[in-house]
């Protein structure tokens, strides 16, 4: 908006986050409060304009679970704030900082909210908890990993393909004994293979299990994990003895021949 030499008034969820993706990072952080800022556009630096009005700390509570939900909520709040800013003539030159941010006007203590990139969707199974994986899929999903396969055109060089967790994950009560061989975080396994109860699970870094319903392997279509892997010739089916949480024993099977990266 061009008003009295002020090129733009920027609305953003920047009470604690600054950068191009504050809505996403608010949800990814698990914060249950948010806020809105009206600021001018800085002539040289992104997100460094003069703050004209801002939600009072600590902000207002929200119950949003997705970016569209949070965007709708903050847009309504921001529209009211912008209208009041125009009515009050807050933008009229000379413009002075109207709001003192937490700590100081240099914005120390605020967290950056960089643009979401594909690397933000790549699951790090060794460190991400079940809660973080489910939350990330809900906010910025679908998530993905890679698999190494043998390149038939060059047997000396492995080929990497992408696996997309298209349906996301469901937290499960399935629990395996922590000493089970070959089933660390990020190694999918099949329970009740070949039966009507067949299901695919994957362990997380905090020793929880997530259920996987659908995946998509590069070059293929979304399908049941076992069918997808068989179609792509990635199916392992290697049996592993394990102990269930109720003390019983049984056989589970590895889903992939190679580990995820």
Mean pLDDT score: 81
Total beta-strand segments: 16
Q: Please indicate the percent range of residues in DSSP E strands (runs of 2 or more).
A: 15-25%
Please work out how many helical segments DSSP would assign.
Answer: 4
Terminal-residue CA separation: 46 Å
Helix content: 10-25%
State the strand order across the main sheet: 10-13-12-11-16-15
What form results from the Cα inertia axes? Answer: elongated
The arrangement of helices and strands along the chain is EEHEEEEHEHEEEEEEEHEE
Structural class: alpha+beta
How many whole angstroms does the radius of gyration measure?
24 Å
| Uncertain spans | 1-11, 101-106
How does the major sheet shape up?
6 strands, antiparallel
In a nutshell, what does this entry contain?
The protein has 261 residues and is an alpha+beta fold. The protein has helices at residues 22-29, 67-88, 130-140, 225-231, and strands spanning 9-12, 17-18, 33-34, 37-40, 51-54, 60-61, 111-112, 143-150, 158-165, 169-172, 189-191, 199-203, 209-212, 216-217, 239-243, 249-254.
